[in-house]
Amino acid sequence: MRAAGLPRPARLRRAADFVALRQASGRLGGRCFSVRYRPSEQGLARLGLAVSKRVSKRAVERNRIKRLVRESFRRMRAQLPPLDVMVMAREQAAGQPGPVLLAELEQLWRRLAALKPPQGAGTIER
Fold first, then answer.
1. Which CATH number is correct for 33-113, 3.40.50.800, 3.30.230.10, 3.40.50.300, 3.30.479.30?
2. What are phi and psi of 36, to 5 degrees?
3. Domain range list for the chain
4. What's the average model confidence in pLDDT over 77-100?
5. How far is C-alpha 106 from the geometric centre of its chain's CA atoms?
6. pTM of the prediction?
């Protein structure tokens, strides 16, 4: 039986990918999360996470937030355009119940899915 996790090609792992997202990317935000995105060179949606100690001093809480983000992304990945996406948790995410975080993430994924694909080389238009 195959694990239902997020496959390696769907993850941002290289530091250069994160640097590129910080330098030239679009932004979306909500109360608990901030999202940066840019067109993916691999042709599929990929996820990177940033949940710092500023969000919560407790590793248990930071890991819970990361698990929720990964699971939400895994479920919506097929509907997303080919983007590299970095989700950064805000301090307000700590202590929020899972359904509240999942609802906000679902709203952010829908906003990303509604983005128009780029016309040639350039950034994604809203």
1. 3.30.230.10
2. -115, 140
3. 33-113
4. 94
5. 11
6. 0.84
